[in-house]
Amino acid sequence: MYEKILIANDGSEGAARALDVAIKLAHRLKAKLHMISVEELMDMPATIDEVVEEELEEKHRYAQVIAQTQFKAKSAHVTIETHVRVGHAVQVIVEFIERERFDLLVIGYMGHSALYNRLIGSTTDRLVDVAPCHVLVVK
């Protein structure tokens, strides 16, 4: 059914629950599992060097998330490939899915107030709307 699964992990509790489900699915389906973590840029970089510097910094910020992910996956006898990117989360994840041809995106649900969701929306909602593959939202 699914041969290539992507888990989006921002280090949140919702993402941790989604990771557990993605690992179980990958193990059960013998699917390839990848994880992407995206740090959004707060301002526009002036040069490509600033983007590269930001990516290196984010790899260090996500080091603990990556280490915990690899430990969980290894404990479940699943291999996981991790990726850290900088940019707008929805855009980066959608482009990554298209480029790497994932069958399934697994994302965590982060509950916000109804007002927040109406005014701002959420990354999860936008990914459900625009992802070019099946999306599993884990509560």
Give the biggest beta sheet. 5 strands, parallel
The number of E-state strands comes to 5
Q: What is the CATH domain class?
A: Alpha Beta
How much strand? Answer: 15-25%
Tell me what the CATH architecture is. 3-Layer(aba) Sandwich
Number of helices: 6
Relevant CATH superfamily: HUPs
Structural class: alpha/beta
What does this structure look like?
The chain is 50% helix and 22% strand. The radius of gyration is 15 Å and the shape is globular. The longest helix has 17 residues, at 13-29. Strands 3-2-1-4-5 form a five-stranded parallel sheet, with helices on both faces. It is built from six helices and five strands; from the N terminus they run E-H-E-H-H-E-H-E-H-H-E. The chain has 139 residues and is α/β, with parallel strands linked by helices.
Task: Write a brief caption for the model.
The protein has 139 residues and is an alpha/beta fold.
Task: Give the key terms.
Rossmann fold; 139 residues; five-stranded parallel beta sheet; 5 strands; 6 helices; globular; 22% strand; alpha/beta
